Amino acid sequence: MRLRSGTERAGIIRVVPPLVPPVVPAGGLSRHGQPRLAVDDLVVRPWEVADAQSVAAAYSDPVIQRWHARSMTEQEALAWVLSWRDRWTAETGAGWAIVRADAVVGRVGFRELRLVDGAGEVAYWVLPAARGRGVAARALTAVTDWMFTHVGLHRATLSHSTRNEPSCRVAAKAGYAYEGTQVEQALHADGWHDMHLHARVRRGQR
């Protein structure tokens, strides 16, 4: 039988110091102002209140609904847009609008960030009128490059349904290598989907 220490018996969990320091120390993201990135004919910029209507429209698109498994009212979209400011400050996520000619045409960002591990998971979508022009791949490359160079992120991943072939092409074009298939990893409206896992790693660190 393992004997518990006094602090454990009192319901206090001892924090064991890690042997490896954080890949990105606290403040490594929030000390930066969220950038606007010019990518050819696109601008990748932080979300704005005025974008809520475009976000609601995006989540009414059947393709986006199918792969992202959600819809939004305009009020819900506004809350979603505003949440990205707080997530940047809290260093838990980073979201950008993809804009062309002052109109929102897509979304790209890190839906999850774990800076202590130097890791993040990306997500993206593109509105129907802008598909087939490399919008998602160009924007994803730009934000990944920025996070690697300025924040020090080490590894970025993305996953998509094995039935979502366009997303697989985006991953490849943005330099996210295929790493394997996760069996029945995500529940969609039509049941469980196997998911492809892709990743891009920043080379030359520690």
**How many DSSP helices?**
6
Largest sheet: 8 strands, mixed
Decide which structural class fits the backbone: alpha+beta
The outline comes out as: globular
Query: From the alpha-carbon coordinates, what is the Rg to the nearest angstrom?
Result: 19 Å
Which fold name fills CATH's third level, the topology? Answer: Aminopeptidase
CATH-wise, what's the superfamily? Gcn5-related N-acetyltransferase (GNAT)
- Termini separation comes to 41 Å
Strands, count: 8
Percentage of residues in strands: 25-35%
The CATH architecture designation is 3-Layer(aba) Sandwich
General description of the model:
- With 206 residues, the chain is an alpha+beta fold.
- It has a single domain (23-201), classed as Gcn5-related N-acetyltransferase (GNAT) (Aminopeptidase, 3-Layer(aba) Sandwich), CATH 3.40.630.
- It has 6 helices and 8 strands.
- It has helices spanning 6-9, 52-58, 62-68, 74-90, 135-151, 165-173; strands at 37-39, 42-46, 94-100, 103-114, 119-126, 155-161, 177-188, 191-201.
- The protein has an 8-stranded mixed β-sheet, with helices on both faces.
- Strand 7 and strand 8 form a beta hairpin.
- Helix 2 (52-58) crosses helix 4 (74-90) and helix 5 crosses helix 6 (165-173).
- The longest helix has 17 residues, at 74-90.
- The protein starts with 5 loop residues before the first helix and ends in a 5-residue tail after the last strand.
- Residues 1-8 have low confidence and may be disordered.
